[in-house]
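Support reply, case 0932

Customer input (verbatim):
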Amino acid sequence: MKKLTLLFVVAILIASCGEDTTNTSLKELNKQKSTLISEIDSLHKELNKVEKEIAKQDTIKNIQIVTTLPAKKGVFKHYVAIQGVVKADKNIEIRPELGGTVKAIYIKEGQSVTAGQTLIQLDDATLKNNITELNTQLSLAKTTFDRQERLWKQKIGSEIQYLQAKTQKEGLENSLATLKTQALKMKIIAPFSGVVDEVFPKNGELTNPQIAVLRLINLENVYIEADVTETYLPVIKLGTEVLINISSVNKKINATIAQTGNYINPNNRSFKARINIVNKDLSIKPNLLADLKILDFKALGIIIPSNLVRQDQNGNDYVFMIKKENNENMIVKKVITVAKEYNHEVYVSIGLTENDTLVNLGARLVKAGDIVKISAN
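Our regenerated output:
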């Protein structure tokens, strides 16, 4: 625009001469040229003065409007996300200790039982018959032993007869005790209180110690087991905070690490972590998948939204700040050090204080040194 204005002024001056220069001498032409240049320089100076005055008096300036955000100090937490599996200590498949035919099933699937309650009875008729027979033999053996003992105390009879009677009696007692123990094992008894989840055999079916007859579960206390990569071994310890989300049953639980493994699995370079949880409503079932967020970093410092952080050509992280200068809001570039980022927030370890004011909306449209207007919203 300045060049066009200048050319326009020159054109006016040339036209104002109003003389035909065809027959003018070279000396006169050079003199006219000098006069015109002098007038142009003078007009150029006057134009600059006018433009400066216009700039001072122009109240409608093209100033970018931005919003601001104060740098806040708080506790920053960073979590590592992994997946775990729900398990229960009291979740077992019960197998009989001895083989036999199912004689009676006293429970149904879904039924609550107490510790020591008889669940299934196997056929023990043979054992009972053997016990009856041994009781008869033992009764005779005891009578024989008692008589031999009285005679031996009276120094009547031989020692060998006494010892034979004693051995016979004790042998039958031991055999009877063994049969009674075996008879007890023909009863399948609940080792703890819980719920019968599934019954496998039917009445009359033959079972053996290799075949499970029922599954018994107690879900009052369950736990989550997860494989954690060895990288986090120094930071994930007993008592570490864990956020649990079991989406299948819409459960969110705050818990802590109850146990960490001492063995590194060579196949996936991980260790076991256990989180105990209380399952009051029994809605959490074994083998459910759980999303875990385990705390691996916590610090008190400046926390800002991650979208405010930009990076220059040298790879330095920076933010734009507002600085008051001559009663105007000037954009200032501030290089920072980002220590951690999580959930759209960053922890700034170096570069910011609580007194700093950051450019929020409009930060992508400004540059260092710009004068901006701060929006009230």
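We compared this against your earlier run and they match. Two observations from our side: Confidence is low (pLDDT under 50) at residues 1-7. The CA atoms of residues 71 and 354 lie 5 Å apart. Please reopen the case if you see a mismatch on your end.
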